[in-house]
Amino acid sequence: MTKHVHVFALLALVSCTLCNGQNKAGLSTDIVKSEFQAVATSHGPNRITRNIIQDRKGDIWIAAFDGIFRYDGKSFTNITGSVSSARFFSVLEDQKGDLWFGTIGSGVYHYDGKSFRHFTTSQGLADDRVPHIYKDKAGDIWFGTLSGASRYDGKVFRNYKMSEGFPGNNNDVNAIMEDKTRKFWFGTRGDACVYDGKTFTVLTHNGQTFTNVRTIIEDRKGNIWLGGQDGLWRYDGHTFTYITEDFVGYICEDRKGNIWTSAQSAYTGRWGIFRYDEKSLSDKKPAATEIESDYKANREMVFGILEANDGSIWFGSLDGVYRYDGNTIKDFKGKDGQK
After folding, report:
1. Using an 8 Å Cβ cutoff, are 16 and 190 in contact?
2. N or C: which end of the chain has fewer CB within 10 A?
3. What is the C-alpha to C-alpha distance for residues 222 and 259, in angstroms, rounded to an integer?
4. What is the radius of gyration, based on Cα positions, of the chain?
5. What is the pLDDT along the chain (339 residues), one digit of tens a residue?
6. Residue 237: which of 183, 285, 276, 187 has the closest Cα?
7. What secondary structure, in 3-state letters, does the chain show?
8. Cα 212 to Cα 338: distance, rounded to the nearest angstrom
9. How far is it, in rounded angstroms, from Cα 199 to Cα 220?
């Protein structure tokens, strides 16, 4: 993808095919862990923190390499400490209020607040490496794995994989998003695709594909935002607008309509948190404000972003979770990190 020219063009879609199928094998053998001990801690995660959400009760859930942590506003609890030593990558709350945890190498855990169910390839999951989880408008749960996407309707898995031989074929799914027209957008390590329920098509712009898309969202106005190796792009249904060439790891829209990204500068190589003001988003080149601090994220990677109910911005890094209150950035490492 050429990154140094601002371009405006109609969306072009090049057809591609994927194979898909249902897998019911082994669903009766789900591992149920009803006896476990959540571990209260004086601090949040200390290892790579990939994803952060806030549930309907207001608790914050953090997926990290040293466990799934819950923060109730006062203290942290490692929910999975006695359940699994897996590296957790993703967390999602479903329409029932249950939690889903994705791991790298150990499949998926479903948590109903009392017990765990464990899903792996033995139960039909496409791959036990699950960097992304998404809930669609019908309530089905999608898992982005390193061997394609799996959709779970509460009973069976249906798996979607690129057909062999397709140019640029890559089954590593980084992001899944259902837009207002009920089309699904997939970001992969290869080319981004769109699925209309029947056909998958590779997304292109000026004859170029979008490669290694790490994150996709739809904002409140219906614009689609894509971020990854080829920078940050906005699609309004007709035209792609090129925003920045920085490598974008994650995109989040706050309640005011501002767009937040975790990104690596194409010029300095530094990572940081950037905010695009809602008032400038319609400009040809929206201006970004970098959140200034002495946080060492300017040298290390930044991952998932959450706007909490109180308006604070949480984000993950290589060494735990951080919170930005509009003025300062606070870490939660060790006893001194506890509020």
Report:
1. no
2. C
3. 13
4. 20
5. 543 333 333 344 455 555 555 554 444 445 555 556 677 887 899 999 999 999 999 999 999 999 999 999 999 999 998 899 999 999 999 999 999 999 999 999 999 999 999 999 999 999 999 999 999 999 999 999 999 999 999 999 999 986 544 444 578 999 999 999 999 999 999 999 999 988 888 999 999 999 999 999 999 999 999 999 999 999 999 999 999 999 999 999 999 999 999 999 888 888 999 999 999 988 878 889 998 655 554 457 899 999 999 999 999 999 999 999 999 999 998 654 444
6. 183
7. CCCCCCCCCECEEEEECEEEEEECCCHHHCEEECCCCCEEECCCCCCCEEEEEECCCCCEEEEECCEEEEECCCCEEECCCCCCCCCEEEEEECCCCCEEEEEECCCEEEECCCCEEEECHHHCCCCCECCEEEECCCCCEEEEEECEEEEECCCCEEEEEECCCCCCCCCCEEEEEECCCCCEEEEECCECEEECCCCEEEEEECCEECECEEEEEECCCCCEEEEECCEEEEECCCEEEEEECCEEEEEEECCCCCEEEEEECCCCCCEEEEEECHHHCCCCCCCEEECCCCCHHHCCCEEEEEECCCCCEEEEECCEEEEECCCCEEECCCHHHCC
8. 36
9. 26
**What are 47's two structure tokens?**
């290892």
Residue with tokens 């706050």: 254
| Token pair in block for residue 311 | 């308006």
